[in-house]
Each structure stands twice: as structure tokens, then as C-alpha cells.
Amino acid sequence: MSSSNGATNGTSAAAAPAEKGAAGATTPRMCANGCGKKAGTLECPKCKDLGRGPSFFCSQMCFASKYPLHVKKMHAPAPKEEYKYDFPEGTVDGFIEEKRHKGFVYTGKLRAVMPVEPVPKRTLPDHIQRPDYATEGELIASAQQRWSAVWGGRILGKAEEVGRTIAYGLRDLRNIANMDERQGRILNPEQIEAMRKVCRYGREVLDIAAAAIRPGITTLEIDAIVHEECIKRDSYPSPLGYHLFPRSVCTSINEVICHGIPDARPLEDGDIINLDVSLFHGGFHSDLNATYPVGSSVPQVNLDLIACARECLDEAIRMCKPGVPYQNLGGRIEEIAKARGFSTNKTYCGHGVNQLFHCRPNVPHYAGNRATGSMRPGQTFTIEPMICVGEQKETHWPDNWTAVTRDGKASAQFEETLLITETGVEVLTAAPGWVLPGKESEAAPGGSGDGTGAAKKKNKKKKKKTAGAAAGAATAEGEKGEGEQDAAEGDAEEA
């Protein structure tokens, strides 16, 4: 408690300023606790800072006796006014029942805009080859239960892609005699050619869909474009029916980190949107995505976010070659994101892709991860960092797919399918004419493109320590303390 005139104890002190009545007469100010006594000059400092009140009390003791009630009534933050979205005619909030009965709350301004007349599941001609999950829906739907007791097969949540990857991938891995393949399947030359073909198709479809992005178009319309372009290439859109995903492409807008389901919401000038396209052709899958600005009013921070997400992917690609541990990529990605003032999601990761849509290896996008295995010629996998403006942790919409940032701030992502060759890496889903950008100056001090930066730093500091020891007794002690601390930091970085 504070006193506007210097009173510091619970005495009634001087009377508070009188209030003017309706007829100009003055009435004494009463205690804010409702005790019926006249208020003194003791005022709640918190209420004063918040601009609420007036909150004058008759005594310190009276104030303290009902302080919890006072806090609840006067200090609680004002209820956040929910953003009102003007739903287009013929659409409704897809989660109105969840909001009404389960307390679901959107984290940002994006809404699930569902047509009143549901759009049926899209179909394909019979001659198009389908992946097994498109014909074995009942078997796949039971994956969570069947693999819940298997080490590494525990699904963390219905929308947890990593859990799905392991749970689904282990079905084939049970029959693999070669233990090395558990670190990532190695393809033969014929299989690699099949991957090149489906990845080329994937790039074509993504570029066609991206050309349609504009304010006013709905993601259901983009979904129709992707579906038809897949059919033209005798390909199956991999997301359709994958663990009950209902559409042919993932469309992630603004605060959606990944796995957004196309709906009837028209894109708005100032949005950003990620299109995640995957095709199945000739027995193999491709997987790629990119984030695009919508219109000309995108905030600069979101444009910077898009550029950072692409830079993170490019620098991770630069590291890829035989022998590089998969866990090294995450450190470089997080280093760049942090240097730009952003964060990287730690739940979702890159993955192996071949005859299986998602399989090993897992490729996390953050430092200190525990991914196993090293890159080998013939392996195909994705890198797909999800970079966030604010908090990297996600929550999910009731559809059990759409992952959104908890703080409602934007997220951006880029993805390519890669092949490790004898001499380096080939980007199978690269755009025509694309080349890896020239290496710029390090994004942050101590950066390393090959994962050896920590070791070099440690050796440099050891030399510094030795030189300091030769300079004299007093200097040696000082250098020794600094050197030991630096060496410890170097060891921590290597770990």
C-alpha cells in the first residue's frame, strides 16, 4: 500500500477528498471494500498504475483482509475481445460446436471457414496407381492402437507427424533384414530415376498452384487445381486419405505452422500461405512446399520470415553430403533463425521419402536434437524447417491436423526432397534453373556449414590458453581461468 500524503500504516489518517453530489454538495468517499467506513488517503498502487478505481481504503488492515477479492475484481486483465470474422455467404465456422461445448479458442485471426454444403472427397480415375493407405484405410486408422506399445511407435497426438511417421514406417521395417536400412532406405539407380520423375511432377504441380494465388481465391479452389494437375500426370495426391486427411494439398495460412486443410475462406491481401504438394507416381512419393505472400500488403516482418525460412533450408542443403550426421542440420537451421530474431518449431521434422510417404530418417530442425544416422549415397529425404515469428510451440485445431502457433503469430516453411549422391546432394524437387545461392557471410558468430565449427573454436581457445601461460605467472593465472571456462563451453557445444 502507498499513501498519497505519506501515511504508511493502518491508521485511518486524513479523510480522502470529498466527492461532489448531484446538487453540488460534497459527500465523503467510502472505503472501496464496502465496509461502510469513510476512506482515508490510502490508495491501492496497482489500481493506480492500471488506471482503475478510485480504490481508497479506510485502513491498511481493511485493505489486507479482502485483498484476494480486490485483486480478482480490480487487477484481472480485461477480457480479450474476440476477433470478429465476417463469414462469406454460404459458409460457417467449422468449429462452432467445439467453441460452444469444449471451450475451443482460436489463437489468431484465421478461422475455419467451411461451406454449408460440404465438398465431397475428390475422386481419381481407376487407372491411377494408389498408395496402400488409400486402399487400406481401416488398417492405417488402427495404426495408433497397434503401435502404441512399440518402442518409438508411440503417437504423441493425432496430429503429430513424427509419431505417424514412425508408427507407419515400422510396418515395413519389421521385415527388413538389413539393419542399416533402419537409418534410411538406400535406393538403386532404377529407383532413383523413379524418384526424379515424381519429384519433377511435384515441382510442376506446386508451381501451377502457386501461380493461382491471389486475394479472393479460396484454398478449396487451389485444392481442386492441385487435384486436377495430379490426374493429368497419372499421379495420386499423396495427402488425400493419409491418416484420414480429407484433401489433396495442405494449405497453411498465417499462423498455421503446417497441415492446414483447404476450406472456403478467400485469401486476403496481406496473408501469407504455404502450399505443401506431394505426389505418388510409379510407386514413389515426392514432397515439397513453399510459402508465398498474398497481394501487396504483407507486413515486412512476415516477408522477412519467408526469406529466413528459405535461407534456413538453403544453408541446410549446403551441408548435405555423404557422412554428415542428420542431427547436425538442426543446429545450423536454429542458428540462422535466432540470428534473424525468429524461432524454429521443434515438433515437426523432415523425413525419409521413397516408396513410403514418411519414413526414416527423421530430420529435426533445431539444435541439440537426438536424430540418429548419417547421410549415405542413395538416400532420399526432406528438409522442411518451420520458422515462427514468435513462440515456436504449437497447438491444434479440433480437426486434429491444423497446427497453429500458440501466440497467433505467423509461421513460414519451405521444403525440398533431396538425394544424397557420391559427391554431395541433388535437389530432386528444385525449380527449373534453380541453383544454391552463393554462401554469404555467416548468419551468426561461430556459424559452420559442416558441423565442425565447435571443434575449430575449441582448438583455437586451447592455443590461446597455452600462449597466455607463457606470458608470466600472474598473466598465466588469469589466462588459465579464462581458458578453462572457454574449453568447457567448447565441450558443451560439441555435446
UniProtKB/TrEMBL annotation:
Sequence ranges assigned to domain C6H2-type in this UniProt record: 28-82
Signal peptide: none
A cellular component term, taken from the record's GO annotations: cytosol
Acidic residues bias locations: 484-495
Required cofactor names: Co(2+); Zn(2+); Mn(2+); Fe(2+)
Low complexity biased stretches: 467-476
Source organism superkingdom: Eukaryota
Cell compartment(s), UniProt: Cytoplasm
A molecular function (GO) term: metalloaminopeptidase activity
Chemical reaction(s) catalysed: Release of N-terminal amino acids, preferentially methionine, from peptides and arylamides
Known EC number: 3.4.11.18
Residues the record lists as binding a protein: 259, 358
Region feature (Disordered): 1-26, 437-495
Pfam families membership: Peptidase_M24 (PF00557), zf-C6H2 (PF15801)
Gene Ontology BP, a term: proteolysis
Keyword line: Aminopeptidase, Cytoplasm, Hydrolase, Metal-binding, Protease, Zinc, Zinc-finger
Function, in words: Cotranslationally removes the N-terminal methionine from nascent proteins. The N-terminal methionine is often cleaved when the second residue in the primary sequence is small and uncharged (Met-Ala-, Cys, Gly, Pro, Ser, Thr, or Val).
Subunit structure: Associates with the 60S ribosomal subunit of the 80S translational complex.
HAMAP family found in the cross-reference section: MetAP_1
PANTHER family the record matches: METHIONINE AMINOPEPTIDASE (PTHR43330), METHIONINE AMINOPEPTIDASE 1 (PTHR43330:SF7)
Protein's name in the database: Methionine aminopeptidase
Organism: Rhodotorula paludigena
Lineage: Eukaryota, Fungi, Dikarya, Basidiomycota, Pucciniomycotina
